[in-house]
Amino acid sequence: MAQVDMYLHNLYRVQPDFVYSVSRDFARSCQTPMLVMPDDTPAHSYQVAVDIASLAPNAEVTVYPWKEPPELKARTVNRVRTFLKAHQPATAMR
């Protein structure tokens, strides 16, 4: 149980205003393309999504909200597919 508590502490309490796995400096320097799909739940705040999208130089962002209506969700799914196809690793393109 102590290990779970430590994980939750690191996940939500150490940097509660940002993501648990990287710093703002890392996000700012990350050259990897990323697609940010904003949400607004306690675990995935809208503000953090906006921050990541604005910090990461190769970030793209979907509309928010993107889950409803069904037509918008379908367009967002297509956007994800397009993003993934455009950013396949060279070895995957063979």
Describe the secondary-structure layout.
Elements: H1 2-13, H2 24-29, E1 34-36, H3 46-55, E2 59-61, H4 70-86
Parallel strand pairs: 1-2
Question: How would you characterize the overall build of this protein?
Answer:
The chain has 94 residues and is mainly alpha-helical. It has one domain. 48% of the residues lie in helices and 6% in strands. Strands 1-2 form a two-stranded parallel ribbon. It is globular.
Q: Number of folding domains?
A: 1
Instruction: Count all strands and give the number.
Output: 2
**Helix run count:** 4
Binned strand content: 5-15%
Query: What is the spatial order of strands in the main beta sheet?
Result: 1-2
| Helix-strand topology string | HHEHEH
Summed over residues and divided by their number, the pLDDT gives a mean of 88
- Helical content class: 40-55%
The structure class reads mainly alpha
What is the general shape? Answer: globular
Radius of gyration: 16 Å
Report the major sheet. Answer: 2 strands, parallel
Distance between the termini: 46 Å
Which runs of at least 5 residues are low in confidence (pLDDT < 50)? Answer: none
Short overview:
By secondary structure, the protein is mostly helical. The chain contains four helices and two strands.
What are the key terms here?
94 residues; two-stranded parallel sheet; mainly alpha; single chain; 4 helices
